Every structure is written in structure tokens, then in C-alpha cells.
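Lecture 7 notes: from sequence to structure.

We start with a single chain of 516 residues. Read the sequence below before looking at the structure.
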Amino acid sequence: MADILLTTLNARWAHCAFGLRYLLANLGPLASHAALAEFDINQRSVDVLESILQHQPRIVGLGVYVWNASQSLPLVAELKRVRPDILVVLGGPEVSHETQAQEIVRYADYVITGEADWAFAELCAKLLRGERPLMKVIPAELPVFEALKLPYDLYEARDLTQRTVYVEASRGCPFACEFCLSALEVPVRAIPPELFLGEMEKLLARGLRHFKFVDRTFNLNLTFSRTILEFFLQRYEPGMFLHFEMVPDRLPESLREVITKFPAGALQFEVGVQTFNEAVAARISRRQDAGKVAENLRWLRAETGVYVHADLIVGLPGEDVASFAAGFDRLCGLQPHEIQIELLKRLRGAPIARHDQAWGMVYSPYPPYEVLQTSVIDFATMQRLRRLARYWDLVANSGNFVRTLELVLGNQPFAGFMGLSDWLHAQVRRSHGIALGALLEAVFRYLTVERRCDAGEVARRLWEDYQRGGRSDMPVFLRPYLTADRANDRRGDEGPKASEAGVGLPRRQGRRQKGG
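Now the structure, written as C-alpha cells:
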């Protein structure tokens, strides 16, 4: 039994609910009366409800995000139908803006907007005493970040070995990019380094080796950033993996020096390029030196072992296909390991909405509120770009086609991959649920039939790529093009160093470490 149940629907089972752990850690004397129950968006709402009711809670606190808003609505509606006496408290970014307009809010008893680390505890204390605040929507007073009780002890052993564990050294963002809710946040606040690193030391001692930092701008405070990197460098062991979100045009020598000391694959930098169009960047209040971004990406790829994940956005106000294609080609030329292509989302409360009329911005009314068309990209073209983004993830970002991708892209990456995307959709009429074997054969057919590439060369590259995942069962369609000797060439060239590369890393990163 638990008087207070903290719960949410994660995007996947492997994700940990970081925000809920903060709430639980800061419940004070109420913590002994509380429990945490995590689910994922693929579970049926009635099954989740059954599990929730087994805890016999008096209060249910539910974290609502853009990725689980659609699934959270029926859960709350069914909960209030079955047990109207249970008090439902909503929180999270999705319900913190445009709050009253949301149907899920109608079912809830209370909504806390903003950072609820302390406000949730205060509300629960009142509710358990029988007090019912008159205001349904409660704006949280900003907590003193350095005074919060940190939640890292609440990660269980299974979390540390099987799931994505999130950590943060700072909150907030100094930039005002209009597509992001960080544009509404207060300036950056940081935890005292000694306190934060003490918690990291404990996680290392418990066996955690993969750390995902959620700081919006990890490299903003350069002294603190360097201190954190040096801390992990001194304690590095094979298999350690650190993910950071980095400001792409801010990489001074003080950081470069320590970054170069990490082994290949130990660091992943997520760099939000978003657009190379300077007029578009200025329109959405994004301050970025495109030349410096390119210089830093070139340096990272040439001089370090950092795994570089770069983001581009489709459908920004006033950016047409030609502009996006030019930016895509430029980014491909800088050779990040991954390019995440995302359709623009109109997140609730984000200032990007001010461009709706001027640029004909039309968004889906349903989460995740992706752009459907703009004045310079019509719906049909946006659909093609949506498919391109999905196929790019399956082919390019997966690490399953590293060498073969070179043939697809040629000298014009956007045009080259759009050709594959359009052809693939015409063949399979879907962008999800494509088995790897079927995708391999489709890429082979496209390159050999449509692009008239040499079948032997395509087969050799596909076979090399296939083996990166540790596979040895040669697909049947490749066998006529590969002799036994040629099929074994790659394995013979690998040697111990290449075969051991990527051990302990996430699968995508590991595949790229094997053989470059």
C-alpha cells in the first residue's frame, strides 16, 4: 500500500522516469508513504490502471509529457471513473502550458505547472490532512536547485545495468530558440560541483557505466564542464559511455584538451544544429555561428573519438526544401555519426506559434504536434520529408549500412537519399515494421537496379555492414555475388583491435566502432 503513488508512461521500458525520482526524493517525511510505479506507452490503459489500484493509493501523481499525453488521457479518465475518490495530480511540461485547454486537465483534481519538486510535497501534505486547495491549477514556486535532495539513490540495481539512467548538473537554458520550451525558462542554475560529483561517485561505485546528461547546455559553464569531464576521465574504464547535449559553436581549447584524452566511443555529443540557414535561425531567435559549428564538427571528427549526433529540423518557418537540402548536404559533409531529422513540433506554450499566420504553419492538433505543412512546403512534400526522416533512421542512423550508405548518398546526399526514400515507399508502402533482412534486400535492389551500381561491390559492402552487428549468417540474396574468400575478407582484416571495438557501448555506437 502507498498513500502517494508517483507514476508515468515512459516512451520505452528502458527509460527511467527522472522527474518522478526527484519528486519522490523531495517528499520529506511523506516519502515513507509513497511508491513509484513506471509503465510505458505500449501498455493498455486498463492494465496500467489495474497495477495502479493494487497500490491502493489515496493520491496518484502522473507525469505528462508530449510523448505520453495521448496515452495518459484514457488512463486518467478510466481511473476517475473506477475510483473517483482517488485524487489525481498532474505535472510535467505538457500540462504546464495551455493548461485549461486540455481534456486531461478536466479529469484531474489538481495540476502543478513548472518545476514541482517541492510543490508536489506541499500539495500532498495538505491533501492527506484533508485540506482541499481551492485552485485546481497550482503554479510551482521555482525550487532552489542546489537545495534539492538529489534522486540518484532511487535508481535500482536493474536500472543501472539495463535501463537509461539520466543525470543533470544544471537546469535551464540561456538561449531563446522559439521551438523549445527552454525559451520560457529562467537562467541556468547548477548544482555545486562537489555535491554533484559525490553522487556520480556513488553511481560509479554501484556499477553504472552509461550516464545520460539531460543538461540543455552542458558546455555553457566551461569550468564546470571541464571539471565533470576530468572527473570521469580519471575514473574511466572500458565500456564507460557519457552522453551530453552541447552548444555546437562553443568548444574552446580548454574543453578540447580534455575531450581528446577520452578513448573512442566513450563520449557522445548531441549537437543541435537545427538549420544552417542564417535568416531562418534569426527568425526563430536562434543565436548560432554556423561557421563555428562547422569548424567544431570537423575538429570532433578529425581529432577525437567522440560519437557525434547532430540534429536538423524540417519545417521551420520560411525554410523551404532547397534550403533544408543545402543544410543537410552541408551537415553530411561534416560526417557526424548520426543525423537526427525531426519534423518541427509546436509544443504547448512554445513561442514558435507566433509565426503561424505569416508562414502558413499548420500543425497536427494531436501530440507530438508535428508540422503538416507551411507556406513553402506543402502537405505532400512534407509527407515525403517525414518518410525520409524515418528511413534515414532505419538506414543511416542504425549503423547497419555504414559502408553501403556511401553508395546511396553519392555527391548529393539529400537527392541521393530522397531517391531511395521515394523508391522504398513505393515498394513497401510503409515506414515502420520493416525487418532488417527485407531492408537489406531492398537497398540491394535499389542500388543495383535503379542506380545501376556494380552488384558485386554492393553485395560486398552490405555483407561488411551486416557483420558489424556480430552476424555471420549471410543473407541468401547475397550469396551469388560473394565467393567464400571474398565473404571472409573483412573478418580476416579486422584483427583483435577491431573485433573488440565497441564492447560495452550502446548498439548503434558499438556497430560504428567496429570497423570505423
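Confidence is low (pLDDT under 50) at residues 490-501. Keep this in mind for problem set 3.
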